Amino acid sequence: MRSARVWKRLLGVEHTVVERVLDDEDAHAVVACVRPTRSRRRRCPVCARHCPGYDQGEGRRRWRALDLGVVQAFLEADAPRVRCPAHGVVVAAVPWARHGAGFTRAFEDTTAWLAVHTSRAAVGELLRIAWRTVGRICARVAAEQAAHMDRFQGLRRIGIDEISYKKGHRYLTVVVDHDSGRLIWAAPGHNEHTLERFFDALGTDRSLQLTHISADAAEWIAKVAARRCPQAVLCLDAFHVVKWATDALDQVRRQTWNTARKSGEVALAGQLKGARFALWKNPEDLTRRQRAKLAWIARVNQRLYRAYLLKEELRLVFKVKGPRAVALLDAWLSWARRCRIPAFVALAQTVTTHRAGIVAALLHGLSNARVESTNTKLRVLTRLAFGFRSPQALIGLAMLSVGGLCPPLPGRG
Ligand SMILES: [Zn+2]
Fold this sequence. Notes:
There is one protein chain. By secondary structure, the chain is of the alpha/beta class. It is built from 17 helices and twelve strands. Helix 2 packs across helix 4, helix 11 crosses helix 12 and helix 16 packs antiparallel against helix 17 (about 390-400). The longest helix is centred in the middle third of the chain and has 25 residues, at about 240-260. Bound molecules: zinc ion. Zinc ion binds near residues 44, 46, 49, 84 and 87.
């Protein structure tokens, strides 16, 4: 009896009886034969209700558990089916694993924790599972964590964003809490219908409690916001405005490069091609070489250097914030309008169109570092999630890493 208790602790299971432990030499694994304690038997996996038994299902099943020392381990048990009045004939719930999982809870929680805290290669190597499997586990763990938590409590200021994945072929709509910096909601799609689902989940009362919404300039976001929370001030995300400027600068750099190449200035064209990162980076992050490159651009191509300064100045507007930032924004606008660089004249036009939303963002301090870092992390995750099959796996991983849903390692809570 005492050893059964030790096994239970080793395997990290609760409400479970360990009947015996075998050494399965063919599978190179330790197998613990288990059953749920009496009170946990014949429960529906969806609603947890006690149900009449239906049949023995497909007989014995195995669930992968965390390795014991250097050996793989499994739990083995019957997997009978029950008939739930609400959910029909289903495989009965087991206390050691989530519904539909081939792994124990402890194994899945460890997978989720590692996916958030280590590299993709490390998770796979350590746990001996494919990245796609990691994705499915993340989706399952995040969904369960989310069900136990009220993520929308006290929500006042939110950011709505669309991010692309699958090399820009698919989109997610994501909602971030400006005050905690956390991702609170995400769903596949980027249109009015998708966003309506967020407000449905939030509920009317809480939608009417929102004070500020920041977003890119997408019309569908503005439309839904006006319908569901007309009282909230709509602000334009600093992140997007700065990206417009970076795109305009890139356009100028490419034109300059093309002109140099066509007129046979091969050396100049080559140098300009390498200048991309120096122009992109924030000046405080430049390496010495990149600073030298920038100085060189200032000497040989004043137009491109002016475009760079225009980009930097606009970025600065959002660093300043408040009424001073609004004055700076207007000074930038009059400079950009007269700069005779088409990409920036066009940008001045766009910024003028959206001035009200930008001013609102500046005055309400809605561009903060925490949300920006969440946005950046989300974009890194979309690349990491390339091997995942479903958007739910990407959403799961995102909710675990920037949504605060990552479970603690088993046995530490
Ligand atoms: Zn049920």
